[in-house]
Amino acid sequence: MNVIRFSDLCANGQVAGKRVFIRADLNVPQDKEGHITEDTRIRASVPCIQMALAAGAAVMVTSHLGRPTEGEFKPEDSLAPVAQRLGELLGREVPVIANWVDGVEVQPGQLVMLENCRVNVGEKKNKEELARKLAALCDIFVHDAFGTAHRAEGTTYGIAQYAPIACAGPLLAAEIDAINKALANPKRPLVAIVAGSKVSTKLSILQALAKNVDNLIVGGGIANTFMLAAGLKIGKSLAEPSLVGEATAVIEAMKARGADVPIPTDVVTAKTFAADAVATVKAATDVADDDLILDIGPQTAAKLAEQLKAAGTIVWNGPVGVFEFAAFENGTKVIAQAIAESSAFSIAGGGDTLAAIAKYGIEKDIGYISTGGGAFLEVLEGKTLPAFEILQRRAQPVAVAASLDTARGIGMMGSDAGLRSILKTVLESMTGDLPAISAALDKADVPSANRLLHAMKGYLPIFAVDALSEEVAHVEWVSKTEPVETVAPLYAALAPKLAGLLVEIRTYVTSS
Ligand SMILES: Nc1ncnc2c1ncn2[C@@H]1O[C@H](COP(=O)(O)OP(=O)(O)OP(=O)(O)O)[C@@H](O)[C@H]1O
Ligand SMILES: O=C(O)[C@H](O)COP(=O)(O)O
Fold first, then answer.
1. Containing H/E element for 220?
2. Which residues, renumbered to this chain, carry the PTM Phosphohistidine (predicted)?
3. Exposed, middle or buried by CB within 10 Å (0-12, 13-18, 19+), for 14?
4. pLDDT in tens, 83-134
5. pLDDT of residue 230
6. Can you list the alpha helix ranges (DSSP code H) found in 239-373?
7. What's the ipTM?
8. Probe residue for ligand 1, chosen from 31, 32, 150, 197 as the CB with the greatest number of ligand atoms within 8 Å
9. Tell me, what DSSP letter sits at residue 257?
10. What percent of the chain stands above pLDDT 90?
């Protein structure tokens, strides 16, 4: 995966004193009072934040929480409980900043949390005006929100288009590697459980999944839509009637491969969506017009559990019922226990799925737990997620424009060994010089920056492409006479290219 990794930037000393904007996925489940019921996503975001702080950055972190209406902040949309939990994990205060789009006060060594980014107008549709403002807040944008990597929004895509440097955080990078590895050659039968409440998002993924998986188990609002497709009544239950055609297409695609999508034969219903609603188990054919289906029935759960026990690989996203209410948790509990008892390699993800895993204490029985729900389903579908598309694109100019010209280097040095030898020395000095130039410019010390650029101007033509050597020569020349206001933006454009060259040099000297 050709993306810039934040860990490399930290190791190269390019982060000290920089403004770092981290997009995390801190979208955790909460109860009615706003208490966090499961904090995996917060814990998983800690390493990136600590990495940025340890590298001496001024750190801003943000996330969405739920699906609020843009421009209409409500107290329940606030990231305050998340900041409080993060503060406990980090052992420091994490102040929450509201109305932050036009500027954020944060100093190196400090960490602030920027209030729910989905309240900003233009976030969802990735409006350019917002994206440019977001990018202007930072020197380095770090995408560490794997759970939201399938969304092309302002803080997950737009900011990456315009920020001076856009890179992958450690969680984002580790998740994609782990999921791809786990699913590269899945042991068959491969069974996917796709359930929960995000019907339209997930139903459209199912068509692609139907080509890959051997068994497709549906639950929650998705199962209700499949029941409609099978001609069953679902009363007032959560479903997406406009997607019945898609559900039918999935059933047909599975049938054509000799597999099927089991439609619930019994369900648990209520008359209201409430924890104390009376639960009634009934046949799937007996659902009344005023019924809400809130869980699969015990017969259906037992049948699905059998299928799961025979699986080679299980992918699980979404609880099959409203497991938060005791009367409607049985289906999810039975499925969770069947996954735990199965010898299959299991991979699970999704905000509420993680909460269900924690509730039934089966963390140790799951092969891999991802912070992504919809995102990891899209990886399974074979899609390139928008996060990776833009980060790869942002890594390209670095690789192309700042590239190492090894043929030239060998010619100039007389041999490959000669080139390697000079590159080892260069690697050492550039690793120190790049942050030193930035630090000098931060202090408006242009003469020091000029001295360092002058040295670089001398050796780059031995092994770098002309465009880069010329750009360095130009910035060095400007820095002889011009003030920091003129030099700093020129160096800001040059720095990522030099950082890219450094990565190439390191790769070259460590290759055999
Ligand atoms: N039959 C149902 N009717 C209404 N809500 C349901 C039903 N079945 C499950 N749910 C709800 O679905 C929610 C979880 O769905 P969701 O699609 O958000 O899953 P997830 O694991 O969080 O995945 P992701 O991270 O992709 O969102 C739970 O809060 C659960 O109560
Ligand atoms: O819970 C999730 O799957 C992620 O946080 C993404 O949330 P979204 O589906 O509201 O974009």
1. helix 220-229
2. 454
3. buried
4. 999 999 999 999 999 999 999 999 999 999 999 999 999 999 999 999 989 9
5. 95
6. 244-256, 298-309, 330-341, 351-359
7. 0.94
8. 197
9. T
10. 81
For residue 162 the two structure tokens come to 């315009």
Alpha-carbon dihedral 473, 475, 477, 481, rounded to 10 degrees: -170
pLDDT at 400 over 60: no
- Which phi and psi angles does 346 have, rounded to 5°? -115, 145
Mean pLDDT within 213-233: 95
Using CA atoms in the order 89, 26, 107, 491, what is the torsion angle rounded to 10 degrees? 130
8 A C-beta contact, residue 371 and residue 24: no
Q: Could you tell me the two tokens for 349?
A: 């993800």
- Sign of torsion, CA 118 120 122 128? negative
End-to-end CA distance of the chain: give it in Å, rounded: 21
Contacts of 439 (CB under 8 A, 6+ apart): 16, 17
> Order of strands, edge to edge, in the sheet holding 111-114?
96-97, 111-114, 58-62, 19-23, 140-143, 165-168
Segment 260-274 mean pLDDT:
96
Q: Is the Cα torsion angle 112, 20, 10, 487 positive or negative in sign?
A: negative
Q: Whose CA is nearest to atom 11 of ligand 2?
A: 148
Q: What is the pLDDT of residues 348-384, one digit of tens each?
A: 999 899 999 999 999 999 999 999 999 988 888 888 8
In this structure, how many other beta carbons lie within 10 angstroms of the beta carbon of residue 305? 18
Asked whether 446 lines ligand 1 (CB < 6 A), one says no
- Under a CB-based contact definition with an 8 Å cutoff, are residues 28 and 41 in contact? yes
Residue 82: count of CB within 10 angstroms of its CB:
26
Residue 370 CA: which ligand is closest? 1
For ligand 2, atom 1, which residue shows the shortest CA distance?
351
Give the residue carrying structure tokens 């029935």: 297
> What would the two tokens of residue 484 be?
């920091």
Cis peptide before 164 (omega within 30 of 0): no
